[in-house]
């Protein structure tokens, strides 16, 4: 009987040990070997990877971590960080239309609202500035000013994106209003603005930034980057955003020499970062309460935004445990953020920019990254055997 109990105990222990690798959270010491095996999968094609213990800052695992790689939309993490640093997240950006002090003139005074909607219903639903609302009211005011005629008008404008100017032109042209558009400066727009006609404003910048990160909106990322560059005193263009991205790294003691920032969204295939660079930045930002919004705004695996369908089939145990920014270009799949692992949290960056082109290759790369993180985020099942059951 005694021998039978010992046999049962040993059999149970062997069974639990054999199951542990598939179910238990990997300890920091066991991660390198497991990651090394996982990363040999052809689906990831020699990626750049780093995993950092968020508590200690220790690099638990690294592969090609100093190799410059395409970030794709992971680049938006830079845009989000500089927006938090330089912009007032509680502020709103106004756009107003006034009758001009001269006959047959309208004055549009903008503030580079990054999110003017072409659809009034969408604008109302999402608290966005509505171009149709501004356009219709301005059109009616012009008719009233000129006894029903829309001929011979000039629209003077300041602080509007060129695309928004084009959208105003197209909106009015469809309704028989074809004014001359004249760009002017802030001071001149104030001097030429007469009776107020209509105005609208953006959501708080915090809401714009949250949407940008959650849904990886390229145009918003570009515009937030430029607004941040202007607020920092740099040029209102891609060159300005590159300068503040570099300063962000250097401010946190991170080597910026391998950063190539062609745009603020990650669309350019010429952008370059390293896994170490991004990993260190995410680690440093998470320690600073000022950047807590960035962490909270990230999509959650299997739950929200661009991660809402991730991990559901590939690594269900990781659902709700990963906060990260996705990235995708043809031949490039990236993911960077944070993964919870029982009593700890890791910063991770995966840059797979050497995969085959095509939808199928991208899908396989995403699944491989999900499974890899699933090994870290897997719930811990204690291997305990009660003496009372023997």
Explain what you see:
- 41% of the residues lie in helices and 17% in strands.
- By secondary structure, the protein is α+β, with helices and mostly antiparallel strands.
- The chain folds into 2 domains: 26-87 and 208-377, 3-Layer(aba) Sandwich (Beta-lactamase); 94-203.
- The strands form 2 sheets. It has a 5-stranded antiparallel beta sheet with strand order 2-1-10-9-8, sandwiched between helices. The protein has a 5-stranded mixed beta sheet with strand order 6-5-4-3-7.
- Strand 5, helix 6 and strand 6 (180-183) form a beta-alpha-beta unit.
- It starts with a helix and ends in a 13-residue tail after the last helix.
Please specify the SSE layout and strand pairing:
Blueprint: H1 2-23, H2 31-38, E1 48-53, E2 59-63, H3 76-86, E3 94-100, E4 105-109, H4 120-126, H5 131-145, E5 154-158, H6 162-173, E6 180-183, H7 186-192, E7 193-201, H8 205-215, H9 218-231, H10 238-251, H11 275-287, H12 292-297, E8 322-329, E9 332-341, E10 344-352, H13 359-377
Parallel strand pairs: 4-5, 5-6
Antiparallel strand pairs: 1-2, 1-10, 3-4, 3-7, 8-9, 9-10
Helix pairs in contact: 2-13, 3-8, 3-9, 3-10, 5-6, 8-9, 9-10
